[in-house]
Amino acid sequence: LEAEYERRTPTSKEHFEEARTYLPGGDTREVTYVDPYPTFVEEASGCTLTTADGEELLDFLNNYTQSVLGHAPPTVVDAVTERFARGNGLAAPTTEATELARRIVERVPSVETVRFANSGTEATMNAIRAAIAHTGNEHVLKLDGAFHGTHDTVLVGVEDEGRENPGVPTTVEERVSTVPFNDTKALVEAFERHGDDLACFIVDPIMGNAGMIPPREGFLETARDLTADTDTLLLFDEVMTFRMDPGGAQERYGIRPDLTAFGKFIGGGLPAGAFGGREDVMSVFDPATGSVTHSGTFNANPATMVGGAATLDALDGNAIERLNDLGATARERLEAVCADAEVPAQVTGDASFLNVHFTDDEVRDARTGTTHEAITERFSLAMRNRGVFVADRGLVNLSTPMGEPEIDALVDAVEGALADLSTAAAF
Length: 427
Ligand code: PMP
Fold this sequence. Notes:
The chain is of the alpha/beta class. The protein folds into two domains: 2-68 and 317-423, Aspartate Aminotransferase, domain 1 (Alpha-Beta Complex), CATH 3.90.1150.10; 74-314, Type I PLP-dependent aspartate aminotransferase-like (Major domain) (Aspartate Aminotransferase, domain 2), CATH 3.40.640. Helices cover 41% and strands 15% of the residues. The chain has helices at 2-8, 10-22, 62-65, 74-85, 95-107, 120-135, 152-155, 170-174, 184-194, 219-229, 249-253, 279-282, 302-314, 317-340, 374-385, 404-423, and strands spanning 41-45, 48-51, 56-59, 113-117, 139-143, 176-179, 198-203, 233-237, 259-262, 273-277, 346-350, 353-357, 388-389, 395-397. The protein has a seven-stranded mixed sheet with strand order 4-10-9-8-7-5-6, sandwiched between helices. A four-stranded mixed sheet has the order 1-2-3-13. The two termini are 14 Å apart. The structure holds 4'-deoxy-4'-aminopyridoxal-5'-phosphate (PMP).
């Protein structure tokens, strides 16, 4: 697999070697660091990436679900460039922020007011801060293996490939606890132990980082009941899952959290995050009534706001339904491919997300999935050699320019990649 990859990508190799001189690891983003070196991409349009090596790749990664409309969607490009040309970064409010906030509040019933930031990391960080300020408690409960960005609190319990978190103070670890996803019993026990001290329980309604694992019936409901009983705030991380329904995963699964974090496409492809929820909680940010700091040079940057609004306008209920149907078709067809493969493989997911796991055992949490094992990296390499770009960890997600032909191409590539793995002695 590596030899074929190196044959196809000599320019990427050259670019990577040059990049390593100036950038530690040759990159600035962990997830784009792959063995033996990453593919450099020069441009993208719709669902196609053009690499530095002149290859066209079908993009089933979509910047880890951000490019839900595909790349360079014309209405978003027009809105952003028009706004940017009229001045950006104004250190004053603009109506564009109100417009995007209104759209989010109208779509997500649990969100009464919302604030903007520049990443999903900032969104979860500020939402947790709001929870601590509102409740007066400092302990945070999270899911084992869930990724919510790169601030200290949420790095506890991520353990990507067995690494601890050097750089995160041990005092932070003392005030964060974790529970396995989909384990209702463990959840009840965690609330028995920490219920009185918790500020919030931050939940990925479908576990993204651990491999697009959907919630089992009753898990999110129990989380809602236990948080309500202990005056703990339930914080949904919908950075990825907002695309599952016009009102996000919380509408799809029928749970009303107290706070929600958003990111990815919320800024139309420009760096963005947002967090919102109950008005009484969010009022900690209102300088007239609260005193929690939320500052940021680029918060609610006008070009980002219009990009987000144009994206939400395009991603209406019909677009989401079509995308989710396409996702269901893809999962069904890939399940059949996995069942016939010589290597143990299965597909998890929901809506327009799916993830390939290399195990026959049931995948229900971060421990039972195989997303961070070497095998998924080899799978992604095999897929790339076949012209399909997926995440190193087996994540696949769809974008609105896609249709049946792209699903055909995906299914063919997965079939071929699984055959490559069975002959490449990958296990
Ligand atoms: N939460 C979830 C569920 C995510 O998937 C991510 C990023 N992949 C984040 C938070 C962090 O977002 P960002 O990379 O924009 O900081």
